[in-house]
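Q: Hi! First time doing this. I have a protein sequence and I read that you can turn it into a structure. Is that right? Here it is:
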Amino acid sequence: MLTLPVELAAEHADLIAAIDALVDAHGATRSALIPVLQGLREQRHEINDVAMQVVADRLGITPVDVQGVVTFYSFLKMEAAGKHIVHVCRTLSCEMAGMRRVAEQLQAELGVTVGGTSADNLVTLDWVNCIGMCDQPPALLIDRKALGRVTPAQVREIVAGLRAEAATT
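A: Yes, that's right. Below is the predicted 3D structure, encoded as structure tokens:
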């Protein structure tokens, strides 16, 4: 079990509690690493160095192993993200079906370039290499929900839906 300095443990008590709850839910084995990290990313919107150290400790692996997974998978980035993450698929099939126009419309609606987070911290817009929707291009992955055959005209409605949801929560 990791022993953090008292000040650091106190400063990150809520983070440690969140990790412990995720480990309790998914198990304290290496196979729980990705589900624990996904849950942490959804709850906290970032995975920082302290989080990686605590996760490593709880799962009995090295912090380097955790960092390797976090930096390998695009959906587990360390950087802080918005409440929602919109991944724009950039496979060849999506490119040929007009993905660039969809991405341009998303950027205009959100006021952010791909790779950035909206000023209200509601949405992080990012590229993804494939979401498994090649039969329905262009495709988006919004948090864990895949949308196919997205048109630039639908983007305004999609963003409005995210904003409306945020206003009610």
